[in-house]
Amino acid sequence: MATEQNPHAILFPYPLQGHVIPAVNLAINLASRGFTITFVNTKSIHHKTTQANNNNNVHAANGEADDIFAAVRGSGLDIRYATVSDGLPVEYDRSLNDEQFTGAMVYVMAAHVEELVAKMVKCSVPPVSCLIVDTFFVWGSAIAKKYGLLCASFWTEPALVYTLYYHMDLLIKNGHFASHDNRKDPIDYIPGVKTIEPKDLMSYLQEDDATTLVHQLIFAAFNDVRGADFVLCNTVHDLEPQVIEALQCYKPFYAIGPILPRGFTNNATVATSLWAESDCTQWLNSKPHGSVLYASFGSYAHITKWALWEIANGLLLSDVSFIWVLRPDVVSSNDLDPLPVGFKEAVRGRGMIIHWCSQQQVLTHPAIGGFLTHCGWNSILESIWCEVPLLCFPLFTDQFTNRKLVVDDWKVGINLSDNQRLVNKEEVLKNVNRFMEENLRNQLKATMGEIKKYLENALGPGGSCDKNMDCFVNNFNAKAKISSAAIN
Ligand SMILES: *[C@@H]1O[C@H](CO)[C@@H](O)[C@H](O)[C@H]1NC(C)=O
Ligand SMILES: *[C@@H]1O[C@H](CO)[C@@H](O)[C@H](O)[C@H]1NC(C)=O
């Protein structure tokens, strides 16, 4: 039951699949601690999710397709749902027009958000006390301040990536970023980071031209986050202790991860997929334990046709069984069937090619032996949780930095290729075979078991998830009391 005392947070996930999923689970977590949450998807994400779920037939029968939280609502959680325009028409192809999408994020969406916030501040019960906004939004703390609200920034990538962005000024000052000829020697002056090589920085920080729209977005977002009251990060304290402790010098920074999709730890799932899911269970049931490679490049990154062909031809030369998730737009929504002609027929029986699936359902299946991944952070956490070793082919953004954590630091995966921006079929063949071969896989799996313990401990009784979440809620309530006293 909502009472006058419940803190009410409006939660804005960044409109990409990999950001919406942890935000949904954050919403459930906070609601179970007495928060009223209004979860705000963009109209475009809402449209895609409900379309995909109608295809999946999840809630269509009982007319609940419009309420993505229907599955958990029964438990008494006060999670409300609203939508907001991102400034572009609902059906606009954001994947094909990435520049325009980024432009809308930087320059247009704030006006729509502000309109919604203004309305809710006026008439919501319980009254709105806080915005929880994905760190990549450029307007979070600015809008919160304007309406006298607290602001918690939600970071869905490793703390290492956050600190690198947060300290871009140091990278620029030292000539490692945004200079005509970026320095290539190791970087040893970022708080909490002993040393990192420029090739392991996020792709945007490896570019010479720092004036693109994405750069404008990153600069503005990391300027805005300086005004936030709290940062909530989907990482585990014991995975990145030095970075987290260094970041806590600036403002309260809470490692509340791993925020795993609820299905991993609890059966009540909220439908979040943007594409209809294929069910691979029967096919997997017919394969020996640990024999199948699961390949997915996530929900957003594009792969060049040329790299896709090299990977396809490498898989063709191997005799490994595989499930390959290829979104319709994985190369471009202009190229809906990018595989080499005859590939599907040539791998029939041992290769299953699908548009999308429940990653949780696949990763938890005993037939899965490894995960060829673009190194998205959710995929990494999920794979560690399921003890599935990683074969890494990062494509852009934080994926290069995440690869370093997986391969170089934690040793729970290997590289697909020596040069991470190039790949050829011989290398794919060699590394896929090596990776799926029992010796190496068992070794990686054993190390993964060790890393998984950090996640288990974090989620267990008295673990860092609960502890840091409690700490956030207590500090939040204290601060909310002070600011409401100041207003009255
Ligand atoms: C979750 O589902 C599995 C199989 O569908 C069942 O065995 C288990 O009891 C369920 N767990 C909970 C907490 O409902
Ligand atoms: C993996 O690739 C990265 C980037 O190209 C490289 O720095 C690293 O040494 C490679 N690691 C191994 C074990 O080959």
Automatic annotation (TrEMBL):
Catalytic EC class: transferase
EC number(s) from the headed UniProt entry: 2.4.1.-
Coiled coil: none
Keyword set, alphabetical order: Glycosyltransferase, Transferase
Matching CDD domains: GT1_Gtf-like
Family: Belongs to the UDP-glycosyltransferase family.
Protein name: Glycosyltransferase
Organism: Stylosanthes scabra
